[in-house]
Amino acid sequence: MTAGSAPSPEAGSAAYVLAVADDAMVYAQRLGEWLTNAPQIEEDMALANVSLDLLGQARALYARVGELDGSGRGEDDYAMFRDERQWRNVHLVEQERGDFAREMARMLWFASYQHELYAAQLASSDPVVAGVAGKAAKEVRYHLDHARHWVLRLGDGTDESHRRMQAALEWAAPYVDELFDDHAAAVTAVEAGLVARLPSELREAAQGRVEAVVSEATLTMPDPPTWRSRGGRDGIHSRPMGYLLAELQHISRSHPGATW
Amino acid sequence: MSEPTAVPAGAHDERSWPLWEVFVRGKRGLAHTHVGSLHAPDAEMALRNGRDVYTRRQEGVSIWVVRADDITASSPDEKDSFFDPAADKIYRHPSFYDVPEDVEYL
Q1: Per CATH, is A9-220+231-254 categorized as 1.20.1260.10?
Q2: Model confidence over A210-238: pLDDT tens digits?
Q3: How far is Cα A252 from Cα A171, in angstroms, rounded to an integer?
Q4: Less Cβ around it within 10 Å: N or C end of chain A?
């Protein structure tokens, strides 16, 4: 998992799967924060369901990473005992929970991205990656549907909901490019047949989905942002990441090996 | 989205969304069974909320949602006049004739 030097094919595959898993894990943690905080108890349940789908994806992938990188580490080792610089998720998923419109903007983008990502992993050379993709593809279709319905309602709802949904799209825009960066591990993964397409090749379809929803919701796509996030795939994270990890990991680290 | 929701921004009042009754048909079930109710801004979201709240453990393969307002229900006050008159009419049960021995399926 060392960055920089040319990785062996297995290590490269492990680094790629780790990035996919970290995106899912960190977003699962953020979505879990909505429990008791969503506009309605029904939405608490909906977001928790999405969170648990993502957690399930991450768990299966972490187990595979432990095999691919030869370390034999388990899911808890990856989720609970890595420091910030060892995480490979994009900045979009680590950003603090904003208002509900922001969450729907983030979910719309992330689910659109994952939708294309898992489609490109269905014929993966790695049976676990292919298996997770097959299961996750159905889950992600529902996440996409959920985000779409809310963006439509907020965008084409009241003046206030329209304004906030539009603002949410603007908020998410600087974090979008990073999803589609062809980072080193992804290039290695494509060469190894782990995934059929590079992140940049997922963009057209993913963005098309987002644009269709935005337009139907009487919203407009934001202008190209004046800055963009970068660094997540190299373990360089933004300020909220440390706080997120502290909350995620403190029980495991305070009581290593504890069970119930 | 022809009907904008009347929920003010930041509203946390559950009563601001209408109530929906949820019916789920299980895998081997023949009929949709009432499983509970929930709040949702419209029918499509009610269906999705129903999925998330009532079918998380594979309880069903089909969901109906009905606006609670659209259900006409008998009143508890009418219980006596509605249902008691049937109590002493046991002849309505098909139990007052002998089944001939040779009849196999009845």
Answers
A1: yes
A2: 999 999 999 999 999 999 999 999 999 99
A3: 33
A4: C
